[in-house]
């Protein structure tokens, strides 16, 4: 089945592009999160506004939140990969 109007081809490539962009945005968000953590560490420690107990609690919270985010990111990225493969499998019909 050949798509003479190229509507299916356009849709196919649009979906793949959207999935790729979503994946990139998730990666960027995680990089921003890591940068935010570095900035927090630099400012919090150098400011001497916080006690060591406060800094330890904040580090624990950052680590816990980062671990939760990483698990969710892995799930979403795996789902995006599966959906991309599903779409790519439709290539013969385009």
Structure description:
By secondary structure, the protein is mainly alpha-helical. It has one domain (25-93). The protein is 83% helix and 0% strand. It has 2 helices and no strands. The protein has helices spanning 7-47, 52-88. α1 runs antiparallel to α2. The protein is elongated and about 70 Å long. The model has no long low-confidence stretch (mean pLDDT 91).
- Give the SSE order as H and E letters: HH
**Main sheet attributes: strand count, strand direction, barrel closure:** none
Shape summary = elongated
In percent, how helical is the residue content? over 70%
- For the record, the count of structural domains works out to 1
Quaternary = single chain
Contiguous helical run count: 2
Q: Report the sheet-strand fraction.
A: under 5%
Number of strands: 0
* Parts with pLDDT < 50 across at least 5 consecutive residues: none
End-to-end separation: 7 Å
Helix/strand-derived class? mainly alpha
> Roughly what is the average pLDDT, rounded to an integer?
91
Rg, nearest Å: 21 Å
């Amino acid at each position: 089945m050949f798509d003479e109007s190229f509507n299916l081809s356009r849709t196919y490539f649009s979906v793949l592009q959207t999935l790729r962009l979503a994946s990139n945005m998730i990666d960027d968000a995680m990089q921003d999160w890591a940068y935010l953590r570095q900035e927090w560490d630099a400012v919090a420690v150098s400011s001497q506004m916080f006690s060591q107990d406060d800094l330890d609690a904040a580090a624990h919270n950052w680590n816990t939140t980062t671990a939760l985010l990483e698990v969710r990111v892995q799930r979403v990225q795996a789902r995006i990969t599966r959906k991309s493969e599903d779409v790519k499998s439709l290539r013969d019909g385009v």
